[in-house]
Amino acid sequence: AAILEVDHLSKRYGSGTSALNDVSLDINEGEIVALLGPNGAGKTTLISIICGLVVPTSGTVRVGGHDIRTDWRAARKMIGLVPQEIALEPFEKVIDCVRYTRGLYGLPPDEAYVEQLLRSLALWDKREARTRELSGGMKRRVLIAKALSHRPKVLFLDEPTAGVDVTLRREMWTVVRELRAQGVTIILTTHYLEEAEDMADRIGVINHGQLLLMRPKSELMGEFGKKR
Ligand code: ADP
Ligand code: ADP
After folding, report:
1. Which residues partner with 12 through β-bridges?
2. pTM confidence score
3. Which one of 11, 13, 43, 158 would you pick to mutate in the ligand 1 pocket, going by the greatest count of ligand atoms within 8 A of its CB?
4. Which residues form the ABC transporter domain (predicted)?
């Protein structure tokens, strides 16, 4: 069943920029989908609309059947977003970041879940560390832990490996696969074909605000003349 349904979505910013033009896509529960496209293609706009942060000019988005505009609260609960920018409170402890984010959703404390989450992201040993003491890779994992603090069904990763080195990139891929094994549906944006190939079940190509194609990885590899 489709956990995410995007229908005829368009966005024109006040500046006149047409950032998205009639984009439709369905994403099934448990899939990993990569949205591939160059800078300015419209990837962040698409994710921002789905997460309810930007209002579309036209079109609809449903998450788990909940319309993002008319049933925002229910839709938002099903979504976790890992933003591109690393924005953490430097003096906050790792474990408190996750507890605090749960609080923002109005959820009661759940120490067992917080522990499970931090362990699954290999952050448990660092739970008492201040975020400013962490390496770049660990900071990114804290952002993921925050995004998963309310147990969303769908996790968005906006350019999870932008500006990180090869080692860190591979570490992120491992984390993504582990999350999928736990049943989380994952949608990520990237401008690396290699990354899309390595991580995703399906790859969508976006350019100039249009979804040019959306195919299972196996089919796409054939089109690019590669065999795996
Ligand atoms: P909207 O119509 O959605 O309100 P606006 O065009 O008025 O969008 O811009 C909203 C904000 O985004 C403004 O603060 C603007 O400075 C900023 N902004 C404008 N152009 C860009 C851009 N290319 N990339 C990122 N932010 C931008
Ligand atoms: P991507 O994430 O693929 O780099 P974006 O969704 O950020 O693409 O941008 C798509 C287009 O919309 C670009 O032309 C960008 O400059 C423009 N844009 C993005 N955000 C805003 C904004 N807030 N206001 C005006 N224009 C924007």
Report:
1. 18
2. 0.83
3. 13
4. 4-228
